Each structure stands twice: as C-alpha cells, then as structure tokens.
Amino acid sequence: MKILHLISSPRGEASFSVKLGNAIVEKLQAANPGSTVTTNNLTNTPFPHLEEVHINSFFTPLENHTPELAEAVKHSDQAITELKNADAIVIGVPMYNFGLPSALKAWIDHIARAGQTFSYSENGPVGLIKGKKVYLAISSGGVYSDGPMKAYDFTESYLRSVLGFLGMIDVTAYRVEGLSIPNLKDVALNNAVESIIL
Ligand SMILES: Cc1cc2nc3c(=O)[nH]c(=O)nc-3n(C[C@H](O)[C@H](O)[C@H](O)COP(=O)(O)O)c2cc1C
C-alpha cells in the first residue's frame, strides 16, 4: 500500500494531529506489510495562495503554456501526481477557528482542478480521483463529535464534501478532541488512538 501522510500543523512532534496521523499510518503499515509512506508537511513547504498566474495556468491548455504558466502549475501538478499515486491518504487536521488551517486549504486549492481531478458531465460533476482510502486525524481543543458544539465543526463536513466532489468518498474521521478541557485533555489522545479501526 502506498500511504500519503499530509501534515498541516506547524507544531511538529508536539502536534496532536501529527501524533494521531502517525498512529493511523502505523496501523495501516501493520495491516499492510511492505507499505511505503510519503510524508508531506504542508507547513514546511507551503502551497501558495492562489494568485492570478496559478488560475491562468489551470485554465490554459498545456500547449499554450508560457514558461511563467508552466512554472506556476508545477505545485498543482506535483500534488495531484502524489495524490493519484497514493492508495491511502492520511490527513492531519488541526481545527483552527472551526475550520481548516490555511496550509491545508491552500493544498486543496491546488488539487481541485477541472479536467484533472473533477469534470462536468451532462449529469453534473464527476470526481476523477477514485478508489482511495482517506483517513482524517482531526485535533481540537473542544468536543465536536457530539454535543452542543457539533454544528460548529467545519473541518470534517467540509473535507467530506470537497474530497467527495473529487471522487474520494471512502473517508473515515478520527478525532483527538477536548484538548482544552481539563478532564478530557489527558485521555484524549489515548481515546483517539484506541478508536482507530481500519
Ligand atoms: C489558531 C488556532 C485556532 C484554534 N481554533 C480552535 C477552534 O476553533 N476550536 C477548537 O476546539 N480548538 C481550536 N484551537 C485548538 C487546536 O485545535 C488544538 O490546540 C489542536 O491540538 C491543534 O492541533 P495540533 O495539536 O495538531 O497542532 C485552535 C488553536 C489555534 C492555534
């Protein structure tokens, strides 16, 4: 199995989404001996916010690419190739202000490309990235899996929508949550790791 592990917390080894992502990767490796892992830290090598040149590069046919457009499309091409090559994608998601960190959103903006990862048919949109297993490792100070704050969670719902739009419909979410809540914070990681069933 080829595993792609995306990291979007800048906190290195202290990060709970990294720890939970690592636990998912380890369980995948144990269940699939000989697996390879590609780790892509989106905070060390960030994808740029989309500028005019990126948009132009996405919508200009390859044969008309100037050197500037060819350079601009490289990030996106590389990310899409990495995605297509993977069998399983583990995405670390620290909740920031109820949603994704901008580093992860920037990656999404580079992989969601008409004609490459989705297209439109007479019956509507078609996702082109098929057959992937996606695992989300979501960390948060509060609790969002259930209870009064559930409606404030725009991490899992957004990722399920956008990844599903691109064809990745087999998505499992694991959460290390309650990291700011006194009686939960010390058991949150253990509870999350124990919840992993592949
Ligand atoms: C900028 C920022 C925004 C945050 N926003 C939220 C939030 O909206 N809800 C929440 O429950 N926790 C929030 N937190 C807490 C983080 O989700 C929590 O610390 C988590 O462990 C961060 O992930 P990491 O450990 O992988 O870095 C925020 C933390 C930071 C630094």
From TrEMBL:
Keywords: Flavoprotein, FMN, NAD, Oxidoreductase. FMN binds at residues 9, 15-17, 95-98, 139-142. Binds 1 FMN per subunit. Its EC number is 1.6.5.-, 1.7.1.17. Its cofactor is FMN. The keyword NAD applies. SUPFAM superfamilies: Flavoproteins. Signal peptide: none annotated. Residues 1-194 form the Flavodoxin-like fold domain. It holds the Pfam family Flavodoxin_2. It catalyses: 2 a quinone + NADH + H(+) = 2 a 1,4-benzosemiquinone + NAD(+); N,N-dimethyl-1,4-phenylenediamine + anthranilate + 2 NAD(+) = 2-(4-dimethylaminophenyl)diazenylbenzoate + 2 NADH + 2 H(+). Belongs to the azoreductase type 1 family. Homodimer. Also exhibits azoreductase activity. Catalyzes the reductive cleavage of the azo bond in aromatic azo compounds to the corresponding amines. This is FMN dependent NADH:quinone oxidoreductase. It comes from Pedobacter riviphilus. The gene is azoR.
